[in-house]
Request: fold
Amino acid sequence: MIGGGQLAQMMALAAMPLGLRVHALDPAVDACAGDVAPLEVAAFDDLAALHRFSDVCDVITFDFENVSAPALAELAALRPVRPNPLSLATAQDRAAEKALFARIGTAVAPFAVIDSREQIEAAASSVTFPAILKTRRFGYDGKGQINVPEAAALADACTRLGNAPCVLESRVRFQRELSIVAVRGLDGQMLCYPLVENLHVDGILSATLAPARVSDTMVAAARLCAERVAEALDYVGVFAIEFFDLNGVLVANEMAPRVHNSGHWSIEGAVTSQFENHMRAVTGLPLGDTAAVGVSCMLNWIGEMPDRAAALSVPGLHWHDYGKSARAGRKVGHATVTAADRQTLVDRLVLLAEKLERHAQIEPVLERLRAPH
Ligand code: AMP
Reply:
């Protein structure tokens, strides 16, 4: 497992009962996967360490996609790498990702690539404002992004992003944000989790509602997109695609070539979790059922963990503390509240908001659950 964060930790936990053992590699001595799996502390591009590490592995996978291309090529020469380097390379680059979506017939926000300052003017005239400037690489959780209200602000925004290669994209006036987590096995078998609804605060995922209340047409469109992406990349493992719901049309935002925060609910809310299915897929085992069991709400704990005892008094609540130190903006844990039906989920979340005094985080979720559609 290249990367030793909470995703690696949850995959290591899911691997254990299958008789699989995860070894993690991460530059941080205190990477939280080290609590549950042997941890090799090394930089992601330390080729000698990658060699040493691959000696003890049968197959290599990731909880983190920003590994350099040379390091990936080195790994791929040593052991099977799943998902493959093409999948990682595509997802690492917002321009390549958008080109793939467009190629398979999925809508994307109008965009222009800005690789040098000479392209600023042309980009400004081909995209409508307000827009968002995003670095092509190494952006996550809203980092490496700047709002560009009007064309006149673009040159300055490029400077603020260090003149890094970027994409400029029009701001989509979406009604909501949705995502689909899918898994493709070594034999090409493909399964999708239900489409879920995501609520963000400051560009960071705050809550996921599973399943989302969407039309069958939207579910079919999301599944078709996921199937085409997986086939185009000859993908093996779990991945996620994030969409904007624009008047019932799915506009693809980005893909993550790994297990995804919007799939954490599946640990308790689905027949087989995304973490177990990723472990099954990359080791060539048959995939598990991705159906939801009842309804769930996953809440991210960002910055610090709330009061555990207060939260655990809520029925149907499942607690996940990654064992990370508290830091502003950092994902340190999550909880998933499960229920057999929507009304019970609402009641449980109302209780949780009171117990934790977290009305600001939970009220928007309740609003979504109480909305007629
Ligand atoms: P990203 O890093 O691309 O996932 O963006 C983080 C968040 O910024 C998304 O979840 C959206 O809430 C918002 N965002 C990104 N791109 C757009 C866009 N083109 N239009 C409107 N909101 C966006």
Summary: The mean pLDDT is 96. Residues 213 and 373 are 7 Å apart (CA to CA). The first strand starts at residue 24 and ends at 26.
